[in-house]
Fold:
Amino acid sequence: MKQILVCITVSAVLVVAGCSTGPRRGAPAPVVRSQPAPVTSAKAPLESRAAPESISYPARDTSGTEIIPYATAPGAAEITPYSSDRPSAAEITAAPSMEPAAPVRSNNTAVLALLSSAGSQQQGGDMPGAAATLERALRIEPRNARLWHRLASLRLEQKQYRMAADLADKSNSLAPEDDNLRRANWRLIARSRSALGDSKGAQQAWEMAR
Amino acid sequence: MPRQTKVTKKRSAAGKAAPGPDRRSRQRPPSVKASRRAGYRWSTRLLALAFLFSLVFGVYLLYLDNLVQIKFDGKRWSVPARVYGRPLDLYAGARIGPEQMAEELIRLGYRKLSHPDKQASWSRNHNRFLVRTRPFTFWDGSEPERFLDLRFDGDRLAGLYDAGGAPLALVRLEAPEVGSIYPSHNEDRILISKDQLPELLVKGLLAVEDRSFYNHHGVDPKAILRALWANLRAGGLVQGGSTLTQQLIKNLYLTQERTLWRKLNEAAMAVILDARYAKDEIMGAYANEIYLGQDGSRAIHGFGLASRFYFNRPLAELDLPRLALLVGMIRGPSLYDPRRHPERAKQRRDKVLEMMLQQGAIGEQQQRQAVAAPLGIGNPGSGGEVRYPAFLTLVRRQLHSDYREEDLTSEGLRIFTTLDPWVQEQAEKALSSRLDLLEKAHKLPAGKLEGAVVVAATGSGEVLAVVSGRRTEFSGFNRALDAVRPIGSLIKPVVYLAALMQPQRYTLTTRIADAPVSLKIPGGKRWTPQNYDRTSHGRVTLFQALAHSYNLATVNLGLDVGVEAVSSLLADLGISRKVEVVPALLLGALSLPPLEVAQLYQTLAAGGFHSPLRAIREVQSSDGNALQRYPLTVRQSVDQGPVYLLNRNLQEVVRSGTGRALSSFLSADLRLAGKTGTTDELRDSWFAGFDSDRVAVVWVGRDDNSPAGLSGSQGAMRVWGDLMRRLKPEPLLLPAPASVDNVWVDTNSGLLADENCANAELMPYLKGSAPVTASSCVTRPAPAQSVGDFFRGLFE
Structure:
């Protein structure tokens, strides 16, 4: 009985199938989607709120354009408590890329290797990559004051001034005796503060840097 | 194109059928005119009926066709986000012992061999490991397959080389998969593309489930007959005649009811599906859709996830016996569950192997070897199960502020978290084993104590472990996140910090009265707190009062400093909850879950630098693009100097105060810092503390909030000690900030002393707050602080 019914169904189906659009054998049926639907929405990450037009993901490359979380206003991008700080670019005088005054010292070859790759990432314009690499180094040596300083200078270059100043504070807290480093940190804090429009605070920081 | 021909034939037959009866009726002899007329009438009716029927039927089939296409074309395999733990960084000097290394490799599903000649395998010879890694794509680049030579020395990785003997600076092992964020309908899967299906798996499927898959048209009448015959002979249901296509239809579109109507629908849709899509597409869909087991409320779908779940390996790494087992389980995933019914599962697997042999899918020798092999199931708890539900809850909550639920459960995101599985396992073991011991030692009812643990990295705020109870495999009530309990004396450091922030009024050696207090409180009642030992200790220094957790001294100090100041300092330290500003706050009339306590102590441990506790580092889309990074942030929320003084005091708690029993777990040389907490009638037992890199909080109590029978040092502190001992902490070095002087003082008088005095101790003071009057024991005139003392004090 079962199979008879099945047979009837089969034939009937074939009739209908024949009448309609015809088989699409070999046509690409998107069972496995290689491209996901973009993660968009009102409740999307900060970056889409800041830049709703850029929903697709630009490939991370060396063009200097950062990936979405950073691609909006400079200094405004990662999920940080500081994203409201938008300095006017005019306030920034010379934005120094690195602080040669306080090179990182470490006996750890892993940390040194990470530093060097962070350096090349930074030069290639991959700031988020460089930051991630420096954070990785900090996981290995969380009390290396010069590493914290290195991350602070990267954030300064990214124009994330609040973050840069905070990281420099942290660096100072770990280096009560390293005067060179402390001066470099204070200079960095001074620059960040003046970029944030805090000229009095910047003045104080410059004094500390002396 | 045989289908096409058939279709045309069938259509022409149907076309001829219509005028058929008409012609026949005309040929009938006139003698039977009446009956002819009746017959004519009947056949017209029949014809109309048939027409109507085929119309309805045709429309229905069109509807089915539409349904099949819409669903199949638009089928989005909802792929839950996969969650990864932290990848292990390997480098010479890393604090990783050989035991941890072995556990990490097992967790990753690497096979231990005598010689690691395959990807994802390893060997061990005492302190030397050879490891062949899997390649892995991280958020910020890929790690290639490597052949590593690791040498351990004690609890350190002493050397890291490639197989050629060249030293390597740094290698990242792949990130361990720790779970997935599956949707509320509880379907979990790891998507595989059809070209990723191992050939033997396909052969096995064909041999067992659908021999003529590549030849039939969606249904296989021969198979149905064969099944019918087999079932008749056996007098029961022993064989099914459903094709893979039918099974897929059943899973995709239909309910599990067993009715004839559903069977018919299924067959019709199978034929439509087969006509419309290529066999390989159907096979690929089948492989991702098929149901293969249950993990609590989570349904295991597809071979990709099943391979992880049962063998803790990617599908591509499975050998013949394992593939055969998966094929066998299709028949009844719970019936043949290899963990619960290993015997039955093996019988079933061997049956599959036999069928594969009969069908010529494998050779005789292959079959013999496979039958001899064990089931090869990963250890319970080491498969692709959701192993750390408590941590995953935290991940989920943090993600929810940035992503929609459906994106998390369907877009195949890869989420790289801060979870350190090694720390997590130590914390789980410490809690469950210690609670057993505590119940025995204190003659408490068995199984009633509960607990929670949170461990975080001090400097970055990365959450390393979350334990929500004794039985970690259940995702029920998350005590670490949601058990909001009074924190008792854990608040005291905040009271003392508030005082120490006023150096002109308070130093660590300032004396305060540990004397009875009685306060009028709203409602006409009086609040008369007492010390734990119910005695007053007279005038004590801040240093002693905190070390011994004196309640009366603390209340007096707090009232002097102001409850308002204490509550606003709490906010600075990262407590966002609304705090009731009442005197009882000074003794911990503030309820917080362990996670928030960890946030509070993170800020203290980091010298006043607040970092929001984070469980996530990066989120990557399914095609490998970075979506988001959650960067390291710090913010100085309290001056470093006072926090330094406080932390010195917290070291004293462990050295000589309420935490001194920790010495039975950990060497005093580690100079760990911490604080005990106990609430009324011993309902809650707390301990929060830190070593050089990690801050950990433990709560022990009962779910019904009845007395647990343990003080902070009797309960939670033992769990903490057990945990820290397992983690092999580094000594806690507190660098003295520039604003602090270390000065010798006479502890009896609180006056300036020198190191020759009998009761002299080196105490830290904020600049300008050290005593100036010299004690009588000082022979020289009041000394300016010597440089040597200063530097000695730096790292005290």
